[in-house]
Amino acid sequence: MATGNSRESVKLEQFLALNDEIAALIRAGIPLELGLSQIAGSATGGLARLSERLAERMEAGATLERALADEGDRVPGVYLAVVESGLRAGRLPEALETISGLARKLLDLHRRAVLAFVYPLIVFALSYALFVAFVWGFVGRVQQMYGTLGFQPETAMNVLIWLRESLWLWGPGVPLLAIAGATVLTRASAASAGGAAGQLVESRLHAFRWLPWLKPITENYDRATFAHMLALLVKHETPLHEAIVLASYSTGNPKIVDSGVQASEKLQAGQPLDVALRNATGLPSFLRWMMVSGNQNSALPATMQQASEVYERRADHRIEWARVTLPIILTAGIGGTSAALYAVALFAPLLEMYKQLAAPII
């Protein structure tokens, strides 16, 4: 029997499939506990165990909302808010289908951003591998030549000899350190983005937002996510102060989370939205203006949908720029630097050897 304490993870694609199944079961009028039991029997891995746990809770009398809430941080809080709003409005299937479409859209945007950096990483890896092969193969032969001629290695040759002798350490060490650093940054980013609401789509891009070419992509990606989620939550009648907090946490961006929480507290204290957002610097001025304007005109969902499209186009533009120009820039930079290093490593010891050959014999 599956237990509520099980920590098996459920991939986003599996979670969305389950979400679609729940929407289909509701539309067909099939009891959820029966349908979820059938899903558990046909699915595998984390999805099967999640379906089984939900079915068991609902068979014991829990509502869908309660059964999902008992999953804790496995289920994003923003998803629970949509379920609650859909149940309250009597339009749960539509709400579930809407959040599935939104999550897939955000996931696709995230994937395209990641793919934009695949080629530069390949260039880095190949250049490093060639340099390792160069140090191992070339330096040994030159060192033998020095020994045959009875020459004493000078500065450049000593450096290359040291690199060759320590190749066992830095050869695998540099890639391992890079992987370890990326893992630490990713986990630190996930931890800083954690919270009661959780992210709808976890973004590994946040760990590397310090890179100058990646920062605009992550910023616009987060703003598009915030606007998307706020539009969805307000459309399904989630209270504005709660919707702002949930939409903020769904981005995983600490600055947006801080601004959203502060704005929510001010709204609950009775302040109007324009005052509550005045110092919310984690949100850009354009987005704050759109929120205030949409709220004043009773068209906040439509306004936020427009804002999300603006930021999504900006993210798309940056992704396309990175995909097209960044490989060229990095290839030229890496290629030029590699060529310079190879030239120095090749000709510096040869020049030192020629200098000793040209020295007068006493």
Description:
The chain starts with 11 loop residues before the first helix and ends with a helix. The N terminus is likely disordered. Helix 1 packs across helix 2 and helix 7 packs across helix 8. By secondary structure, it is mainly alpha-helical. It is 77% helix and 0% strand.
Blueprint of the fold:
Layout (H helix, E strand, L loop, with lengths): L11 H17 L3 H11 L2 H15 L4 H6 L7 H13 L2 H24 L2 H32 L5 H11 L1 H26 L22 H21 L4 H12 L2 H15 L4 H4 L8 H12 L3 H59 L4
Task: Give keywords.
mainly alpha; 77% helix; 362 residues; 0% strand; disordered N terminus
Brief rundown of the structure:
Helix content is 77%, strand content 0%.
The residue ranges in which pLDDT falls below 50 over 5 or more consecutive positions are 1-7, 193-197
Quaternary structure: single chain
Tell me what portion of residues adopts beta-strand conformation.
under 5%
Helix content: over 70%
Name the helix and strand elements from N-terminus to C-terminus, one letter apiece. Answer: HHHHHHHHHHHHHHH
Largest sheet: number of strands, sense, barrel closure: none
Structural class: mainly alpha
Measure the end-to-end span: 90 Å
Strand segment count: 0
By DSSP (H or I, 4+ residues per run), the number of helices equals 15
> What is the CA-atom radius of gyration, in angstroms?
28 Å
Overall spatial form: elongated
Give the mean pLDDT. 79
